Give the backbone structure.
Amino acid sequence: MIYLQLFFVYFKIGLFGFGGGYAMLSLIQHEVVEVHKWVSQSTFADIVAISQVTPGPVGINSATYIGYEVTGSVFGSAIATFGVCLPSLLLMFFVSKLFNKYKDNHWVKNVFAYLRPAVIGLIATAGISLMNKSNFIDYWSVVICIGAFISVYFLKLHPILMIVIAGCVGYVCF
Amino acid sequence: MESKTTETHLEPINHQNQKASLWNLFFVFFKIGAFTFGGGWAMIALIQHELVDRKKWLSKEEFLDALAISQSLPGILAVNISIFTGNKLRGKLGVLFSTMGTVLPSFVIMLTIVIFFSQFTNQPSVVAVFKAVRPAVVALILIPVFTSAKSAKINRRNIWLPIAVVIAVSVLRVSPIYVILAVIIGAIIKTYINQQKLKK
């Protein structure tokens, strides 16, 4: 029964979680900490911290972690992860089919011509919102940020390589 | 003879014709899933690098369209983009392989941590590494702003739009969903007005 519950809670999170990972966090917290009491508030904070230092989307990270915590089995992780992805699968599949069908339509074309610059604004917002005290501890953080930007944007370094180098710099210097 | 020359005539390279194998799709999204820290937006730079610049599976415009759609629908941003791309390139099976690729790395890594290392984040070496990785990720998020500005046709006349979006979301705390809805409604009204002008 717990598996079914886990599936529905994560399906709900996937269905109502707009705006990407960190916007989803409050919804996840509400469901798993306050409503279902599957994990304590401090465990939830640990999960968020671990999600920040492990690769991949935060939504998947939390589903995998909580799925295991709650059921004690890998199957719990799988069910929660599947649950959070399923609404996306159904909706995106349907909408991208529609988009491919109507993308040459005059109206659709115009709407997307306006959406593209708006999306650029959204990306910029995501970057700006992360320029906070937990990511920028001292002036070295600023140096690293600028160095990372130059190496990928101007020197065309592969983003993965840049992240690996940044990690090595941190390991050696801090 | 004539028909042969038309056949051999080189057409402008149509990027969509470069067929992606299912394994290719899986591997590219696995790479994206395995190396991006800091959630969906940090993945955008890598997704653009892999899908638009290297593999040329999506044009820059299509990439922005995929982003607009993925952001407007609920769910995990990276998963939504992998579904859009998988569906565009290889249909239903493509969706399966690209989504598995995105999900699998974080699934396996989180499972390993929850089973074996619950004290993972307190390790001094982990703290040190991420002290440098976090600001680097911020740079990574900002790069697509500059690389995509041209394909979004940003110029002096419409630069107010991305700036207004930044102010609306980061200062006025408007949800991105409403921003996208407002842009869609505005675009429809503008198109309608332009059509009326043409009729006259």
